[in-house]
Amino acid sequence: MNQTAPEKRRSRISRQQILDTASGLLQEHGAQGVSIRKIAGLIPCAPPSIYYYFKNKEEILDAMVATPLDELIDRLTDQAASTLDAKGLLLAYADFWLMHRQQMSLLFLPGHWGQQSIFNHAKYSQIEQTLRQALDGDKLRAEGYLGLVNGLLFKVQNSDIDERKAYQLVEQTLTHLL
């Protein structure tokens, strides 16, 4: 006797569906709350289905970081083309994260890639390089100013300060420094 096929065939999952589900888990539970098993349970699919797209959790988190960084790099490249001004680049950087507040938590993930965090990501290095060019190649100042802006963004991330006030805070701080 033949075994019966499953009554309902599950639809094929997508890479984007995995990333969206992982993003929801990240927002709710942080990096520790993201797991292949939890993602599979929410989609729903079998955990091995996720391995078709990603080797492990770290690769999922890397993909989640790459998308906003690509968009940010494009924005900073456009800004640098119009004016190679450090303050303008830093304001564009801050504005990007303030307008993408849901994704801002990606900026402050702990080193879930072993020792790597977003600040060691290859794409983040491109951001530092763009700022370094505006500062006549001064790597220390570029890292320092980015660190300052990231610190301000970190304070704003979980506060009730709206984007406009947060942007003004960053702008006033940078005006005093640059």
Structural write-up:
This protein has 178 residues and is mostly helical. The protein has two domains: 9-54, Arc Repressor Mutant, subunit A, CATH 1.10.10; 64-177. Helix content is 66%, strand content 0%. It has helices at 15-29, 36-42, 47-51, 57-82, 86-99, 104-107, 122-134, 139-157, 163-177. The longest helix is centred in the middle third of the chain and has 26 residues, at 57-82.
Uncertain ranges: 1-9
Could you tell me the mean pLDDT?
A: 84
Number of helices: 9
Radius of gyration of CA atoms, rounded to a whole number = 20 Å
Q: Helices and strands: which structural class?
A: mainly alpha
Terminal Cα span: 79 Å
> How many domain regions?
2
Instruction: Give the proportion of residues in helices.
Output: 55-70%
Q: Kindly state the number of beta strands.
A: 0
The ordered string of helix (H) and strand (E) elements is: HHHHHHHHH
Biggest sheet, open or closed, and with what strands and sense? none
Strand content: under 5%
Rough shape?
elongated
Protein name: TetR/AcrR family transcriptional regulator
Keywords: DNA-binding, Transcription, Transcription regulation
DNA-binding region: 35-54
Domain HTH tetR-type: 12-72
